[in-house]
Amino acid sequence: MFKGVGTALLTPFNEDYSIDYISYEKLLKYQLDNKIDYVVVLGTTGETPTITTEEKEKLIDFTMQFINGKCKVIVGTGSNNTLSVIENNKLAEKYKADGVLIVNPYYNKSSQKGLVEHYKYISERTNLPIILYNVPGRTGMNILPDTVLEIANNCKNVVAIKEASGDISQIAKIIANAPNNFSVISGNDDQTLPVISLGGIGVISVFSNVFPREMKMIVDACLNNSWNEARKLNNQYLTMMNLLFIESSPSPAKFVAEKLGLMKNILRLPLIPVSDSSEKLLFEELKKLNKV
Questions:
Q1: Are 52 and 59 in contact (CB under 8 A)?
Q2: Residues catalogued as catalytic
Q3: Omega of the bond leading into 270 within 30 degrees of 0 (cis)
Q4: For residues 228 and 90, what is the distance between their CA atoms, to the nearest angstrom?
Q5: Are 164 and 141 in contact (CB under 8 A)?
Q6: Element housing 286 (H / E)
Q7: For residue range 256-289, what is the model confidence (pLDDT) as tens digits?
Q8: Residue-wise pLDDT tens digits, 17-69
Q9: Disulfide engineering: 76 pairs with which of 43, 54, 57, 115, CB 3.0-4.6 Å?
Q10: Which residues touch 52 (CB under 8 Å, ≥6 apart)?
Q11: Does a structural domain hold residue 251?
Q12: Predicted pLDDT of residue 1
């Protein structure tokens, strides 16, 4: 259902920290021009913890109106409060999003059984397709493979997982045992090739904010079994993929986005722009890739 490349969209800001919709429109156009398969609004990359409820609704509305069916739109609705997820899902439903991305609860750490109950409760209260999101490095908790499979087998509208655990063995176990209507999406740009080789269907990407054409080429090559081409492209861009996480994401991506003329390098606290040393590494890699 969500095959290919989905871009976890940045949220551009003005100098007064309001949302910069002129740059946001430019970013959306950049994605469409480069044939991205879908976009994810209000994911971690969009600095969602700092976005107000009113801003969230406007961002969803703006995104849906601009995209206008040209690609799919997923809305990040996750929270560590199950009832808040239900309310966020209602916004996604209101504007007719194509699906929701729901990160596992963070901070108030659940048990694996609690995770099953959390997602089951949410699943029963929306008709939208749900993508689970496992990112233990951010949430402090791993959704174990058996838990993922139990959710997938018992929640008919849970259709995929964005897997960002970094554990290839864990990802392989999910893919090998998943029901036919459940897919695995890479949550790490640098693991997209191996995840697809195991049977994954694509990536939800930070890299594609700034290199959408390149990420699309890598994923298309993988999905078409053109592995020599995929490896060549992946090796070419691997350093930049990794540099985009040299400091807390999306700070490095915003620096690169500014250099490419997409938006200003402004983040909302507690995030700040990358250090001078990181800027130097990012800029040098942009030069190697002939982007500046």
A1: no
A2: 133, 162
A3: yes
A4: 44
A5: no
A6: helix 276-288
A7: 999 999 999 999 999 999 999 999 999 999 999 9
A8: 999 999 999 999 999 999 999 999 999 999 999 999 999 999 999 999 999 99
A9: 43
A10: none
A11: no
A12: 82
Give CA 32 to chain center in angstroms: 16
The C-alpha atoms of residue 215 and residue 7 are separated, in whole angstroms, by 10
| CA atoms within 13 A of residue 21's CA, in its CB half-sphere | 10
Nearest-10 Cα torsion for 142, 148, 149, 155: 160
CATH number for the domain including 124? 3.20.20.70
CA distance 198 to 140: 26
Domain that holds residue 203: 4-226
Write the single-letter amino acid at 33.
D
Which residues touch 245 (CB under 8 Å, ≥6 apart)? 206, 252
Q: Is residue 38 within 8 Å of 6, Cβ to Cβ?
A: yes
Distance of alpha carbon 21 from alpha carbon 99, whole angstroms: 23
Q: How many CB atoms lie within 10 A of CB 95?
A: 16
Query: Rounded CA gap, 221 and 233, in Å?
Result: 9
Residue 243 lies in a domain: no
Q: Scanning the structure block, which residue is given the tokens 């899902």?
A: 89
Q: How far is CA 90 from each of CA 154, 187, 254, rounded to the nearest angstrom?
A: 22, 25, 30
Q: Are 104 and 133 in contact (CB under 8 A)?
A: yes
Residue 89 lies in a domain: yes
Cα gap 178→172, rounded to integer Å = 10
